[in-house]
Design goal:
The complex is a heterodimer. By secondary structure, chain A is mainly beta. Chain A contains no helices and 9 strands. In chain A, the strands form 2 sheets. In chain A, strands 1, 3, 4, 7, 8 and 9 form a 6-stranded mixed beta sheet that branches. A 3-stranded antiparallel beta sheet of chain A has the order 2-6-5, with no helix packed on it. In chain A, a hairpin with a 5-residue loop joins strand 7 and strand 8. Chain B is globular. In chain B, a hairpin with a 5-residue loop joins strand 4 and strand 5. The chains are: A mainly beta, B mainly beta.
């Protein structure tokens, strides 16, 4: 199972919006609405920010939103804040009843 | 408090074996899908394995045959037995709970570091 494809890095200024893409195949991203996004600060465990493509867990800011079109999912962060600076990973359930992660995107604010 | 706490990592020589533990509190591992995810230094997340009641464990192709996931319901603990360790197995190993039906990792431990080196 190949990793999902994410840009290595993105950057934005405070209050701007950015979008991170996550490209897979019809066996994972394109085949299921089970795409999730995780935020990871240095030395910390990942934290889920989006699940089921576009749902936010309780407590996650509504500045985070997700979407999907075909084999590509996207995470958008609006109103960028300094604390958003972190690594972001997408993940998808797959047709093999396994999970696959993206390579990760480093967000610089 | 609902949490996961991993232990058992350390420095081990290539070819060696290790058993990682993940103690759960605030919920039961027996009633949940549970998983291991690892992260090599400076690298991304890699799904490794999951287990659930009533079915066979699943493993990533990269570790199949060398890793065994299990749980002790009486101790409410998840385990990962890692055999024939390779340098490329060096990573922080996280245990995580999978939310059934939405299939995402909703609860993570802090991880335990495994370093494979001679």
């Amino acid at each position: 199972q190949s990793a999902l494809t994410q840009p290595a890095s993105v950057s934005g200024s405070p209050q701007q919006s950015i979008t991170i893409s996550c490209t897979g195949t019809s066996s994972d991203v394109g085949g299921y609405n089970y795409v999730s996004w995780y935020q990871q600060h240095p030395g910390k465990a990942p934290k889920v920010m989006i699940y089921d493509v576009s749902n936010r867990p309780s407590g996650v800011s509504n500045r985070f939103s997700g979407s999907k079109s075909g084999n590509t999912a996207s995470l958008t962060i609006s109103g960028l804040q300094a604390e958003d600076e972190a690594d972001y990973y997408c993940s998808s359930y797959t047709s093999s009843a396994t999970w696959v992660f993206g390579g990760g995107t480093k967000l610089t604010v | 408090e609902v949490q996961l706490v991993e232990s058992g990592g350390g420095l081990i020589q290539p070819g060696g074996s290790l058993r990682l533990s993940c103690a759960a509190s605030g919920f039961s591992v027996s009633n949940n899908y549970m998983s291991w995810v690892r992260q090599a230094p400076g690298r991304g997340l890699e799904w490794v394995s999951f287990i659930y009641s009533g079915g066979s464990p699943h493993y990533a192709d990269s570790v199949k045959g060398r890793l065994t996931i299990s749980r002790d319901n009486s101790k409410n603990t998840l385990y990962l037995q890692v055999n024939s360790l390779r340098v490329e197995d060096t990573a922080v190993y996280y245990c995580a709970r999978i939310l059934w039906r939405s299939w995402y990792f909703d609860l993570w431990g802090r991880g335990t570091l495994v370093t494979v080196s001679s």
